[in-house]
Specification:
mainly beta, six-stranded antiparallel beta barrel, 2 helices, 37% strand, binds 4-(aminomethyl)benzoic acid
């Protein structure tokens, strides 16, 4: 996160860290992406976060990744399901969404606490210009390698029309995504934040409106962050969860 502030304990309880290590490796798991807990056994993330031949785990309830915190829950990923129309081109990432099914013990996966809670899905479109929140452990203006402490920042929803202007992203942007940020630059998501939440207020609750997806570098003028448009995938989310009990 560029232009962010440290998150307080319990403020973003649906934020998870997605971590991988090569299958068969005895080394430590490494953070690669953010994700969002949407049900006890289900995490929503970006499609481009799913790598082949990796063991995957999800860490939740944690702000500082390198510290052992009593609030932390670590759960193995049983299955990763990437959207069937996920596609990466040199200029954009389309249908950038995936679901992770967590491994359960006695029918439970995540245990709801003060520090671990599910996020609600959105019910419809929100207005352009609305202020929303992004968070993650990704790169900052100080470090390409990301931060130990979870950071958050406020961003504004940018209209599809504005985002499709030639000086912004032109024809690369479609309706599976939207732009958010600050066109003057400075505040943005970045590498390592991918798959993590963009939440907005809707009907007096926080809803998961976007997932960090892509952008032309980070924090640059006229190059806002691009987010997966979660409202476009509500049927896919519901059908995928139902099909994998
Ligand atoms: C990335 O490389 C990435 N500024 C994520 C978000 C943004 C740019 C790049 C948005 O994963």
């Amino acid at each position: 996160i560029f232009g962010g502030l440290k998150v307080s304990p319990g403020a973003i309880p649906w934020q998870v860290s997605i971590q991988v290590k090569p299958k068969g490796s005895t080394g430590p798991f490494k953070h690669i992406c953010g994700g969002v807990l949407i049900q006890g056994c289900w995490v929503l993330t970006a499609g481009h976060c799913i790598q082949k031949n990796m063991n995957m785990q999800v860490v939740m309830g944690s702000l500082a990744l390198s510290n052992v915190e009593s609030s932390t829950q670590t759960i193995e990923v049983e299955r990763a399901i990437v959207h069937e129309n996920y596609r990466e081109t040199p200029t954009a990432v389309y249908n950038d969404i995936a679901l992770l099914k967590l491994r359960n013990t006695n029918g439970r996966c995540a245990n709801e606490t003060q520090f671990v809670k599910t996020a609600c899905l959105p019910e419809g479109q929100l207005p352009d210009g609305m202020e929303c929140k992004i968070s993650g452990w990704g790169a900052t203006e100080e470090s390409d390698y990301g931060t130990n402490h979870l950071l958050e920042a406020n961003v504004l929803l940018i209209s599809q029309e504005k985002c499709s202007e030639p000086v912004v992203y032109g024809r690369a942007v479609d309706n599976t995504m939207f732009c958010a940020g600050h066109l003057q630059g400075g505040v943005d998501s970045c590498q390592g934040d991918s798959g993590g939440p963009l939440t907005c207020q809707q009907n007096s609750t926080h809803v998961i409106y976007g997932l960090v997806s892509w952008g032309d570098q980070c924090g640059k003028k006229n190059k806002p962050g691009v987010y997966t448009r979660v409202t476009r995938f509500l049927d896919w989310i519901k059908a995928t969860i139902q099909a994998n009990p």
